[in-house]
Each structure stands twice: as C-alpha cells, then as structure tokens.
Design a protein that fits this description.
Strand content: 25-35%
Structural class: alpha/beta
Number of strands: 10
Strand order of the largest sheet: 5-6-7-8-9-10
Shape: globular
Distance between the termini: 43 Å
Order of helices and strands: HEHEEEEEHEHEEEH
Length: 221
C-alpha cells in the first residue's frame, strides 16, 4: 500500500504505530541503520515521499517506541513520551518534545497515547510544527475518543492533523483534518489508504481569521 500511495504521487506517507511488528516485545529492538526500514528508505528515495511510522528502537538508555520521519537518506526520530499500560514495562519514555525536521518540513509527531495530553501537540505547534501527525494502535472500544481527540488537536492548534490508526489489531478510523476542524478524509475499520490534498498555508489563514493562536496567554498557563 505504501508503494501504491507513492505511485499515486503522495508527498507524505503515514503508517501506524509499530506497523511492522505490533507490540511483540520478544523481538530485539533495532539500532541504526534500522534494517527493517531499508525497503522504505529505498521507496522514499525513489518517490521523493516522506514516510512516517514507528518501530521498536534501541537507545543508550533502553528500548523505545521510536517514531521516525524519513526523507530518503535523511531521517529524524521521536521517542514516544507517554508509554501506555504494559508498554511502561518494555519501553522507556521519551524526554524531548520537538518537531521532527526533514526535507524542509517540521512535522509535529505524536504516538498514540500522547494524543490524550494536549500539552504535547501544543508544544509541537509552539515550536514551529507545519502540521501534526499522530500514529497509533488505538483500540476499537475507544475509537470515539480517538476521533474526538484528533479533531480537537487540529481545532485548538489551528493546524492540519494527519492521524493514522492501525486496523485489525486496533480500531482503524484513520483521519485527516484541516486547521479549521474540517474532515478532509476518513477511513473505516478496514485496512485502506486515504488521501487528501493539504495546503500548508491554510494554517496561517485560519489563524488570522480566528485569532486563538495570537490571543493565547502562555505566561498564565
């Protein structure tokens, strides 16, 4: 499906959290150059697309749920800030929240449970993110939370939000939202590809139209 999206001209291809393995904690976490991503790196080089996802990675301090944004040979990473449930026994939490910068784009990357903490998205946006991307394994029984949170993060930060959730093992319902809260594309619970055209300049137009961003008072909160 990634190759199909690339063939269709996609500029950004977003895959779910731990899309290659799921939560298979018996597997050895990968270290650079991340062998499982070789074919995706080749796809990115050939197509020019940015590819976003997460894998089980290793760090100096232990295993991490490692989000990545890949543009050919260039790759930036983000470690999931808020491990959920059993994850806490297997992954150490990230200690830094900042946009991942690749190919001239600043991507505000969140992983699953992070979306329940609005401070994460706000810090990413205040640090200059051009768009938000959330990758997840959000369970079907809470998929109504997922949809509400994805749209809320877009509205409150007045920014595009691409949110990719696994199907099968999770509830699907991937969604792409504009900075005014409009749903640009939405999936059901089956595996599929959703596509939307995004004009990044729309973020600034929306922020000028409704001046929530300008009217923030961060000195109080």
């Amino acid at each position: 499906m990634s190759a199909d999206a690339a063939d269709g001209g996609a500029a950004i291809i977003v895959l779910p959290e731990l899309f290659l393995t799921g939560f298979c904690y018996d597997l050895e976490p990968e270290s650079y150059p991340y062998p499982s991503l070789i074919s995706f790196r080749a796809l990115s080089v050939d197509s020019g697309a940015i590819i976003v996802g997460s894998i089980m990675g290793s760090s100096d301090h232990g295993p991490i749920n490692m989000g990545f944004c890949m543009a050919g040979a260039e790759m930036g990473v983000y470690s999931k800030t808020h491990p959920f449930g059993d994850e806490k026994e297997h992954f150490i939490p990230g200690e830094s929240i900042a946009p991942v910068k690749v190919s001239g784009l600043s991507i505000g990357l969140e992983i699953c449970y992070d979306i329940r903490f609005p401070e994460v998205a706000r810090k990413l946006c205040a640090s200059g993110a051009d768009l938000l991307v959330t990758i997840a394994q959000f369970p079907v029984e809470r998929i109504h939370h997922w949809r509400a949170l994805v749209i809320a993060r877009a509205i409150e930060n007045q920014i595009h939000h691409i949110a990719c959730n696994a199907s099968g093992s999770a509830g699907g319902s991937s969604i792409i939202v504009g900075p005014g809260g409009e749903v640009l594309a939405e999936a059901g619970d089956e595996e599929c590809v959703i596509i939307a055209d995004i004009d990044l300049d729309e973020r600034d137009r929306v922020r000028r139209s409704i001046t929530c961003w300008e009217d923030r008072r961060p000195e109080l909160y």
